[in-house]
Each structure stands twice: as structure tokens, then as C-alpha cells.
Amino acid sequence: MQTQERLLMEQIDLLSKCELGRRLFGDTPPRSLEEFRSQVPLTTFEDYADILLLQKDDALPAPAVIWLQTTWEGGNFPHKCAPYTAAMLETYKNNTLATMLLTTSKRKGHFNVKPNGRMLYALAPLPYATGLVPTTVWSFSRTPVFMNSFLSRRCCTACATRRIPPRPI
Hints:
Layout: H1 2-15, H2 19-25, H3 33-39, H4 49-52, E1 66-71, E2 79-84, H5 86-103, H6 132-141, H7 144-154, H8 157-160
Antiparallel strand pairs: 1-2
């Protein structure tokens, strides 16, 4: 619970410095979980639509690298937009690679990741979030040093010494 509370306070600190946060918190951001619960009301997409649909980077705590959207069949809007910052994309890439490694694992420390391997991609393309998967896989395949570093920390010795050459899609 302490980790979650610390992460919430980090987000509150970031948000309090931008238009979006001031809209939520007013002039005084919450200083604790209890204050957050009592001060900040539940919101809906409509509360942020003017910022998000217009993709107003200047109203966010960090600029968006890419704007993603969802298929949205309800409410008053044809879709929802969500900004992805550089930090969010880095987390997404790490999570995607970890997921790929774990789904090929037969037991602890043994992964079935091969140079020039292929995968079936049957997900929605950009601008939907699942469209980031090929970009993520491509960026990892183009950076063998990072891939080998990642594997060396989480994989067996044999995998850590592999070189994964760049390969066009």
C-alpha cells in the first residue's frame, strides 16, 4: 500500500503543475491520500474532453509523444484520446518485452526468443494502443545492445550472449 500511495503522490505532484491538474485540485493539491479522497471528485471523460480531444499538450504535465484513441460507442464523443509521454512509452516497451519473454518461457530462466523470430500480429493498428506492439518489437529488434542487456539481467547465460541482429519488418 505504501508504494501505491507514494506513486499517487508523485502523480499529484506532476499534475498540480499543469492546467489539467489545476482543474482537478484547484489551487491547493492534496498532500495525502485522505485529502485526495476528500477533495478530488470522481470524473468522466467529459471532464477532460476539451483538452484530450484537442490534444492540448500544453495542458498536460508532460508533452505527448503520440496520441492514442479508443473505439468509443457511448457518451457524446466518437472516440476517446489519450496522450502517451516518453516515460509511458518506455514503460510500455519494457512491459511488452517482458510479456513476450514470459509467454515463451517453459520454466524459470529459459525463454524461447530467437534472432529473426516472427510473431503473428492480429491486433488493431495505430492510433489504437495495440498498434504500439509492432513499433515496440521493431524498436527492440533494432537495439541489440538493449535487448542483450535486458536478457542478461533476466535470462540464462546462453540467451545473454546472443546477438539479435536488426531486421526490417
